[in-house]
Each structure stands twice: as C-alpha cells, then as structure tokens.
Amino acid sequence: MYIELHAYVDESMRIHDGLYVLAAVIVPCEYADEHRAALRALLLGKQPRLHWRDERPKRRLEITHAVAALHPNTVIVIGTRLKPAKQRRARRKCLERLLWHLTCRDVSRVVMERRSAEGNKEDLDMVNALRAREALPQDIHVEWTSPLVEELLWLPDVVAGIFARAETGDRTLEDLLSGDHLVERISCD
Asked: Which domain of life does the protein's organism represent (predicted)?
C-alpha cells in the first residue's frame, strides 16, 4: 500500500556557535490533519503560531513532549563551522543533502518555510540546478509557504531548535524527542 509522504522544512542558525541546522519532518498525508490539530492545541491565547525562538524554557518542554507524542520522522542536516559571511553557502550545502535524504525516503512534496523573495529564488535556483544534474527527481514537488498558513511548518521549527541546542551541548530536550531521527553533520567551510 502506497503512503504519500510530505516533508516540512525549516532552519535554525546559531552564528556564534558556527551552526546552520536544516530540519525536515516527514508526515504521512493520512496523519497531516491530526498533527495540525495537535499543534494548534498548543497555542496560547491569541498566539498566531508556535515559534521556538519565542518560547520560554517551560513552554519548550511542553512543546517537546507534544511533538514527541507525534513520533516524528525527521531528517536533520547540521552545517558546522559556519562563518557569518557564508550563510547562503551553508544553506545551499545543507539543502542539497537534505533534499537527497528526502528523495531516498520517497517524499513526494517538500514544503519549506517561506523566506524573502530573494531567499526563495535562491532555493528555487538550487532545486532547478539539482534537477538539471539529475540529483533531484522531476516529480518531487518543492514549494514555499508561510507558517501562518501551514501549521506543519511548526514541526521543523521545533526540531531545528531542539537539535541546534543539542549541538551546543544541552541534549535534555533531544533526549525527550522520540521518533526516527537521521542526523548528518557537514562542514560549511
């Protein structure tokens, strides 16, 4: 039985630690609405979305437990030795590896958090270059959208934040995050 898989992608940068983290959470389409509902249930008051960077430690723990309950299937590419002037290069290197891993997992659609128009164009140019080299299948759909429109983009935001924190030595939340995690580290220099 074929199960359609979609991946949701976001980043976390820790420039002072020399880290660029690109995370994807793979969600079977049949569970997408269930995951969205679980994420919306975490919102407080008029909070429009979950954003890891804005959460306090106690909330981060609560969010980590809720995401762990979804048993996420993740792919995390961690770029190390990031230099502030080389952020674009780091993203390209990490994105290439991430898309390769997602292709190997038969993901049919990749939804990335929208960035600036220029940033989205750079990503699209990268996708097209990978397709031209036949390093990315023509039939994998890649798109960019806002986390205000697609709640499932909150998942990789959380995962990227947790793994960036773990990479700097605090593995407390990573240890709580059950699921299937593939982590690859690459040098960004």
From this structure: Bacteria
Domain residues for the domain of 141 are: 5-187
111: alpha, beta or left? (left if phi > 0; alpha if psi -120 to 50): beta
Q: Looking at the 3D structure of the chain, how many domains does it have?
A: 1
Tens of pLDDT, residue by residue over 90-107, are 999 999 999 999 999 999
DSSP assignment, residue 81? S
The domain that holds 62 is classified in CATH as 3.30.420.10
Contact 96, 15 (CB under 8 A): no
Q: Is the pTM for the entire model greater than 0.85?
A: yes
Phi-psi region of 45 (alpha: psi -120 to 50; beta: other; left: phi over 0): left
Can you list the alpha helix ranges (DSSP code H) found in the chain?
32-40, 57-68, 87-104, 117-132, 154-167, 172-176
